Each structure stands twice: as structure tokens, then as C-alpha cells.
Amino acid sequence: MNTNSHYKLKHFIPWTRAKIYKMLVLSIIPTLLFYFLELNWLAIPWVPIALLGTATAFISGFKNTQTYNRTWEARQIFGAIINSSRAFGIMVKDFVRNNDKLKESELHTEIIYRHFAWLTAMRFQLRETKSWENVKVRSYYKEYLKYYKVPEWESDLPEELKPFLSEKELGYILSTKNKATQILAIQSEHLRKLNEEGLISDYNYVTLENQLKDLYDQQGKCERIKNFPYPRQFTSINLYFTNMLCFLLPFGFWASFLK
Asked: What is the rounded end-to-end Cα distance, in angstroms, of the chain?
């Protein structure tokens, strides 16, 4: 996310220069044909171009709206994870009790650190590159990467998880496919054992399990956005209409020059 007020031209123009070159070519060729060869029969009336422009505006507007909706949904999920994490931390501190205050503090630390491990594993999963993503494929995307850093692409997950998990848990988690899910499963198993030992009351145990369920729900929502790309038919239609409008627009101006 760009946290500045706008994209700077020194970044934006190099990023889009391929499309700028394309637009220049589409504009220069009709101009040369008009000026040197006087192929006036190529002129197109404004009416069909205006209709095409209206359709393109609606399609582009729809895409922008849906893109913003996906972004806003992701922001809501992020906020829900923050709220649930805070609530989970408070509940662990107040619900998990032991007569030995040192052991009680160690239990709190173990559970909270495991939650940190879940957050770490999930952010790494959400930063994995999918086959339909272009950020590491298109040349202009790769070139723009020099202006920002993605920590998950530059760090190692085992090293990031090591401070939060025991060696046994770390070895198991790294052997699984959906690491974030398995961390929550270990968290639930640990809470059950504490309930059986009488360190968490039955009512408080159910409340903590409900918090884990909410974290599962938020993770699933994140994975839904991550694993479902913007439908390609909408992207393709927007691309075709925009390219067609850019191609025909100079010929529409040509008709105006003839008057």
C-alpha cells in the first residue's frame, strides 16, 4: 500500500512507460497517414467512438469499484484480526491461572508467543506468489520493486518462527502445508490440556475456544481473497475495450480535422 498522498511521477512514468510508448505509436501512425498520405477515407465519425468510450468508462468504473471492495474487505479483516488478538491476549492473561505465579507467567508467555507464530505464519502464507499474480513476472512490476520492500520475500520463515515456538512444535509446523492452521490446532490442544488440569475453568475454556474459532474465520477470509483472483473475463473485457478505444480515438480526431 502506498501511504503517500499520491504516486510520484518519477515512479509512475517509468512504471507505465511501456503503455505510454504504445499510446504514442497509436497516435503518431494515424497522424502521419493523415499528414503525408492524406488517406481521408480512414476517418471515423465520433458517434461510434463515443458509444465505445461510454461502454469503456462503465467497464473501467466497475473494475475500479470491485478492486476497491476487495481492498476494503481486506482492511476489515485486518481490523478484525487486531481486535480478536487483543481480546485473546486479555482472556489468556485473566483466564489461565496457576497458584505458582512464575509458572502462570510462563504459560501466558507460551500461549501469546504461539499466537505471534500464527500471525507470522499467516503473513508469510499471504505473501506467497500465486501462478496468476504478475508482480514477479511483468517487467515493469519487477522494476518497480526497487521502490519498496516486502519483508516476507527477504526473510526466512523458520528463523521468524523460532523465537515463538519450541523446537518440537517448530519442526512439526514446518512439515505441514497450512502452517497457520496447524498452529491454531496446537493452540487449541494446549488449552484443552490446561482445562483438564484445572488451570482453565470450563466456561473460560469455551470462551477461549470461541476466540480461536474467530481467528480461524478471519484466516479463512484472508485465504479467500488471496486464492481467488479478480475474474479474468472482467479483466479481459476491460483490456479489449480500452485498447480498442485508444486505437480508434486518433481516427475520430482525424474526422474533426477534415472540417
From this structure: 48
**Contact between 242 and 64 (Cβ < 8 Å):** no
Q: What is the pLDDT of residues 20-76, one digit of tens each?
A: 888 888 888 887 877 777 777 777 888 888 888 888 888 888 888 888 898 899 999
Of 79, 33, 47, nearest to 214 (Cα)?
A: 79
User: What one-character DSSP code corresponds to residue 198?
Assistant: T
Residue with cell 513476472: 137
Q: Is 252 exposed, middle or buried (0-12, 13-18, 19+ CB in 10 A)?
A: buried
Do the Cβ atoms of 122 and 84 come closer than 8 Å?
A: no
Q: Between 103 and 10, whose confidence is greater? A: 103
Cβ distance 96 to 195 under 8 Å? no
Closest Cα partner for 179 from 114, 227, 229? Answer: 114
* Alpha carbon distance 179, 33 (integer Å): 61
Rounded to two decimals, what is the model's pTM? 0.82
**pLDDT over 70, % of the chain:** 95
Residues 197, 100: Cα–Cα separation, whole Å: 14
The C-alpha atoms of residue 185 and residue 10 are separated, in whole angstroms, by 48
Q: Rounded CA gap, 39 and 30, in Å?
A: 9
Residue-wise pLDDT tens digits, 77-99:
999 999 999 999 999 999 999 98
Cα angle 244-249-252, degrees, rounded to a multiple of 5: 130
